[in-house]
Amino acid sequence: MTVFILRRVLQAILVLLITSLVVFLGVYAIGDPLEILLPADASMAERAQVAESLNLNDPLPVQYWTFISSAVQGDFGRSFVYNRPALDVIFERLPATLELVTTSLILSLVIGIPLGLIAGVKPRSLTDESIMTGSILGFSLPNFWQGMMLIMIFAVWLGWLPSTGRGETGTFLGLRTSYATWDGFVHLILPATNLALAQIALVIRLTRTGVQETMPLDFVKYARARGIGEGRILFVHVLKTILIPIVTVLGIEFGSLIAFAVVTETIFAWPGVGKLIIDSIKMLDRPVVVAYILVITAMFIVINLVVDVLYSLLDPRIRGRAQ
């Protein structure tokens, strides 16, 4: 097991190095940040002074080496725009994104599992066809279009919910959260729903498939033979069996939701890291862009590493193949 974990850690370090190089070159090629940061009438002396203060005069290999040697020590540079450490800027916005992603995952489970169970126990019925059609819409419609429709219906036409911003936050268990105030809670509903729609469709399909594969198994027939009711069989025995792959998939999707919340946060002006990265790209704020992508990449690697380790613990054949 130690060799397996060490090998995965070395692979993770290699992936981070390659990612940092690709991202650094990509951000460097986008343009000169001085064109954004300085006014058009700035003198050559002012440009030279700012370029020197931001280390932009150094050759690209020197800039990359300076960045990577500092990043190893936890210093990803200072934001050109905010004049603060890039990691501080990112971690300041990260709680808002985590709150949005966590809420969308809860909605996925609360809505997706019951609908998947209903579709699974009534295959090829009108109810099943209706639910599966809805799940196809959740998968196929573009996320930005779904967001605009939610704003149009619930914010513009009906006027029930606010369409932008995080609203007022409060303190709960020492954390600033939207759940602590009614204004913050209602501001959370539309963006969380928008981010959850594709995940709800995924949970419906996983649950439906799991129910159809599990119901014909012997332990279900045995439970029926013992006189156990269909409701208890479905919600206790079958649900317990199919929850393992559903939770596993959603755990892996957690990282994807953080990375791809960019669209939702931009549409709803949600002050998370997704909106931050869009603003940083517009302003050519290289330290924030590179640090953000490396943080997200590291998060993906850690999640996949944890999943791989858990799988290897559960199934020694996987560990044997990896070694």
Shape: globular
Contiguous uncertain segments of 5+ residues: none
**Can you summarize the main beta sheet?**
2 strands, antiparallel
On the 0-100 scale, what is the average pLDDT? 82
* Number of strand segments: 2
Cα(first) to Cα(last) distance is: 9 Å
Radius of gyration: 24 Å
Physical arrangement of strands within the biggest beta sheet: 1-2
Oligomeric assembly = single chain
Describe the model.
The structure is a single chain. β1 (170-172) and β2 (175-177) form a beta hairpin. The mean pLDDT is 82. The chain is built from 14 helices and two strands. With 323 residues, it is mostly helical. Helix content is 76%, strand content 2%. α5 (86-121) crosses α8, α6 (126-140) crosses α8 and α13 (286-314) packs across α14. It has a two-stranded antiparallel sheet with strand order 1-2.
Descriptive keywords:
MetI-like_sf; 76% helix; membrane; mainly alpha; BPD_transp_1_N; ABC transporter permease subunit; 323 residues; 2 strands
Furnish the topology, listing elements before pairings.
Elements: H1 2-30, H2 34-37, H3 44-53, H4 60-72, H5 86-121, H6 126-140, H7 143-157, E1 170-172, E2 175-177, H8 182-214, H9 218-225, H10 230-259, H11 262-267, H12 273-282, H13 286-314, H14 316-322
Antiparallel strand pairs: 1-2
Helix pairs in contact: 1-13, 5-6, 5-8, 5-10, 5-13, 6-8, 7-8, 8-10, 10-13, 12-13, 13-14
Domain ABC transmembrane type-1: 94-311
Pfam families: BPD_transp_1, BPD_transp_1_N
InterPro entries: BPD_transp_1_N, MetI-like, MetI-like_sf
